[in-house]
Fold this sequence. Notes:
Number of strands: 5
Order of helices and strands: HHEEEEEH
CATH superfamily: Calcium binding protein CcbP, beta-barrel domain
CATH class: Mainly Beta
Structural class: alpha+beta
Shape: globular
Number of domains: 1
CATH topology: SH3 type barrels
Amino acid sequence: MSSSKNAEIEERIYNDIVVDCYDELERSTGWHCYLDDRLAFPFEAECCQELTVSPLKMKERVVVTGMADQDYCEATMQVQIKWLDRTLAVPLVQLEASSDDVDEETVEAIGDWHYWVEQGYHF
């Protein structure tokens, strides 16, 4: 967990994403809506950390095609990826935009989610 706060990201989180959210489900919904609105699908991403709940390996590149169903995002934000010959959902925290073609809003939104997790915030 990081203790250094970023005022700009904190403001965006509390004024745009979780504003008027009173419980875990509302915060989860706020994040899902924010990411679904801001991420420009499809985009290329690279695995930046291996997780036991995901088959991705470090530096593996994937195409992110959309947000996972909100029902799958109640504990953490997940995105759908093309992987091998199928589509599956993986935690967004393990991905970062990997192409110069990814728009700034997408990069910012992914960064916002990484920041939330790194700060130890929870739904």
